[in-house]
Write a structure and sequence with these properties.
The chain has six helices and eight strands. It is of the alpha+beta class and 196 residues long. It has one domain: Peptide Deformylase. The protein has a five-stranded antiparallel sheet, sandwiched between helices. A three-stranded antiparallel sheet has the order 4-5-8. The radius of gyration is 16 Å and the shape is globular. InterPro entries: Peptide_deformylase, Peptide_deformylase_sf. GO terms for molecular function: metal ion binding; peptide deformylase activity. Belongs to the polypeptide deformylase family. Its cofactor is Fe(2+).
């Protein structure tokens, strides 16, 4: 079963999602939702998906940054973004703590706003406390791109999209980004787009 990804403008993306109750975690309904979200994420493809993006206003997100997604990315770009593979995992009722200021900016996109990207400042280092799919508590200390993915997905659970945090002058279609901005250094992009 394929699940349609909610697109920007749909109310579910702007509402704060409700926490899952302990008795809901591990039920057939939630297990099925997680599996459908995983299939949807792989089909997209993407590195993270929050339940509101599939029309469910629940504090549940999945993350997986596969090595195959990074195979075509230059080594220098991977190093600059501090990006490495992240195995599949589930976050339920996550709480995030920024352990550094939101001062690392890269272009970012979203499955709910396909075809566009923008520079978004994020914290380089975060700590997340959540429950996994069996209801067990987990703590994640993440840096670099993984920290960015966590911030992006947890924002979805609070009705926030990357366009709320982006540097507005950097907003671009993917085609124009590839044509004009992709080959430029991050330092040049920051100088060009950082709000004055």
């Amino acid at each position: 079963m394929r699940i349609k990804i909610a697109s920007v403008g749909e109310p579910v993306l702007r509402d704060a999602a409700r926490p899952l109750r302990p008795e809901e975690i591990g039920t057939g309904r939630i297990r099925e939702l997680i599996e459908h979200m995983r299939e949807t994420l792989a089909d997209a493809p993407g590195v993270g998906l929050a339940a509101p993006q599939v029309g469910e206003s629940l504090q549940l997100a999945i993350i997986e940054d596969k090595a195959e997604y990074q195979a075509t990315v230059a080594a220098g770009e991977l190093a600059e973004r501090e990006r490495s593979p992240v195995p599949f995992h589930v976050l339920i009722n996550p709480e995030i703590e920024l352990l550094s200021p939101p001062e690392v900016s890269f272009f970012e996109g979203c499955l709910s706003l396909p075809g566009f990207v923008a520079m978004v400042p994020r914290a380089r280092h975060v700590r997340v406390r959540a429950l996994n799919e069996t209801g067990q508590p987990v703590q994640i200390d993440a840096e670099g791109w993984y920290a960015r993915i966590l911030q992006h997905e947890i924002d979805h659970l609070h009705g926030t999209l990357y366009i709320d945090r982006m540097w507005h002058r950097s907003f671009s279609s993917i085609d124009q980004h590839s044509r004009h901005w992709k080959s430029r250094s991050t330092a040049e992009l920051v100088t060009h787009f950082r709000p004055k």
